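User: My instructor asked us to take a sequence, write out its structure as tokens, and then describe one feature of it. I'm not sure where to start. Here is the sequence I was given:
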Amino acid sequence: MKATVLGCGTSSGVPRIGNDWGDCDPNEPRNTRSRPSIVVESATTRILVDTSPDLRGQLLAARIDRVDAVIWTHDHADHCHGIDDLRQLYHVSGTPVQGFARRATLDSLTRRFAYVFAGNAGYPATCEPHLLEDVVRVGDIDVGVIDLPHGPITTAGLRFVGEDGTIGYATDFSALDDDAIAFFSGLDAWIVDALREREHPTHPHLALTLAAIERCQPKQAILTHMDQSMDYARLIDTLPGGIVPGHDGLVVTA
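Assistant: Let's start with the prediction itself. The structure tokens for your sequence are:
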């Protein structure tokens, strides 16, 4: 089983509009970060996580034109505003994409993007909505789900279990309690939010994420959702062994 990091930036991406690279070296291609999304796949099943505003370019770069399902972690713009690009996946497959989200997220998406799920003015629905339960099976991948605090809302933390590996994904959270630590423990690979070094009210800062990785002991950890203060080369030089900064297009094998 493997995961492809489609995008590992924040809601503003890197660089920010205005050519704002912050502390990131603009000559390092791995500092160019689109909005956050991943694909997890086995030999027979492919699951997209979130539909970022950069989804079209991300799927083109990864040469992906088919998915078996999409899972939304939550309804913030940087995680769902590329939802229209599911239309082309519908055209390729000829059937609506199977879409999963927790109840509050699903209600928000089906209200805001009703035409995606119900069609409109002769245009067909391009996604079929499903409630994301605590455990759901897509093809040959079992997906475990846990709710994580993200400011005033929650976001879905995900654990993908295949015949030959386990991959975790945790983005947009502000804390991990003991239940969450147990949920993410013992993974082959954990892709996890590390927004910046300074504390943030709704995202984990680097020290919080490193402490969680130490407790969960994945075989490898990949940082994502990083802002323009998180220079790739500096992180590579300073992170503990087994932990690397993600970059757009990175393929992680479980």
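For the description part of your assignment, you could build on this observation: The radius of gyration is 17 Å. Try explaining in your own words what that tells you about the chain.
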